[in-house]
Amino acid sequence: MNTKITLRMDELLIKTAKSEAARRGKSVSQMVGEFFAHLGNSGQEAGNELPPVTAALLGVLKGQDIDESAHKQHLREKYL
Fold first, then answer.
1. Taking a C-beta distance cutoff of 8 angstroms, is the pair 7, 36 a contact?
2. Three-state secondary structure string covering 41-72
């Protein structure tokens, strides 16, 4: 059974959400529902597999000694 919910958000956020929903061929309600459905679970139960790119990157940095300062250094080298 579907029930209505009212969300109050910034006008720009609403425009962005509608644009993204249209790009994905979904309604904003569907996207919000999917978001809430994924809260609290890993998203990897049957029927909720990760997108291929995300799945391919899962665990790539496991065991690496990476911290915020390393990321900042990378950004400095890349953009300065």
1. no
2. CCCCCCCCCCCHHHHHHCCCCCCCCCCHHHHH
- Say how far apart CA 5 and CA 28 lie, in whole Å: 12
> For the whole model, what pTM was predicted?
0.48
* Side chain identity, residue 77: E
76: its two tokens: 């400095």
Report how far residue 73's alpha carbon sits from residue 79's, in angstroms, rounded to the nearest whole number: 10
pLDDT tens digits, one per residue of 11-49: 999 999 999 999 999 999 999 988 888 776 654 555 567
